[in-house]
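Page 42, continued from yesterday. The earlier attempt failed because a stray header line got pasted into the input along with the sequence. Redoing it now with the clean sequence only.
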Amino acid sequence: MSLASKYGDRELVKGLGIYKDMRLDAMPPEYRARFLSRPHEFFVDPFCVEGNLYFIGNREIGCYLIDSGDGLIVIDTGYEFTAGQLFNSIWMLGFDPRNIKHVFHTHNHNDHIAATNLIVKMSGARTYMSEVDGKAMVESMTAKPSMRYAAIGAPSIKFVPDVYTHDEESFTIGNTTITCYDTPGHSRGCQSFVFNVEGHDGKTYTAGIHGGLGILSLHKEFMEAEGYYSARDEFFAQLRKVVDLPVDIYLGSHTLQGNMMEKLEKRKADPNGPNPFIDPTEWKKMINTAWVQAMQLIDDEENGNTPEWQKKMYADILKQSGNSK
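This time it went through. C-alpha cells are written below.
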C-alpha cells in the first residue's frame, strides 16, 4: 500500500473534480523573490466581496475586513512590509483603521500576523488566535531559534493574543458571529472561520476562510525538521471534518486560493450580473483540491518525482532556518 493510499481514496468527494491550476504549495522561488523585493507590484485596490465583507489583502495574501456595526473586524494581517498597503486599503474603502476592534488569525505564520502589532498600536484592537498556535508564538519569543518556530518570523511581529480560541467556539460581535474550527496540518493550531455576511440584497450569506490548505508542511523533510510527524494525519482528518460545512462565499487565505482576482475581473465585466464570489459549491471543491494535491505530493515524494523547483525551494527554506542536511 502506498503512503498516500492509507489516507483513503484519491478524491475526498468522488466525482466533484478539482481546480487543476490551483497552487496550494509554497510560492515558487522566482515569484517569492519578486514579491519580497517589489511588493508594490502586488497591490490590489480593495473591494467589497459582498455586503459588509471586504477584501483588503494583496495578490499574495488574503486579508479581510468586516463591518460588524460595532467596530471593524480584520481576519489576518499579512506581512509587516505590506502593512502600509493594508492601512491604505482600509482608508480607501472609507473606513478608519483606528476603528478596528478585533483581529482574528487563521494561524501563526508570519505572512498572516506581521502587521497585527501595528494595528494594535493604532486602535487597541483585541487579538484572537487558537490556543495551540498562540502559545507556540509566545513560547517562540524566548525559545532557541529552530525550524519549529521559523515560520512565525521575527520577534518584532510577535504578540501575546488577548483571546485563545478553540474548536467550534463562536464569537458574536455586532451583527457578525464568527465560529472557529480547528483545522491543523499546515500548522499545529491552524483554524478556519465561518461567519454570516449581510448581503446587499437583504439576504444573509455564510462566508468561510480555510486557514491552512497549503501543503508545504506535509513534505517529509519539513515534518522531520519541525518534529510535526502527525501533520499529514491531522491534515486529512480536518479536511474530512469541514468538507460539508455550508459555505456560500469561499475566501482564500492566499489570494490565488479561490481565484479572488479572477472573480473580481468577472464582476467588473458584468457589474449587474450574479456575484461571482457567491458560489455554494466552491468550499467543497477547494477542500477536494487540497486533498488531491496532498495525495499527489506524497506520491511524488514516495516515487522520487518531486519537481526540482520544489526540492530547491524546500532546501532553501530549511537552510535559512538552520536545518539543512
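Notes: The longest helix spans residues 282-302.
Reminder to self: strip header lines before submitting.
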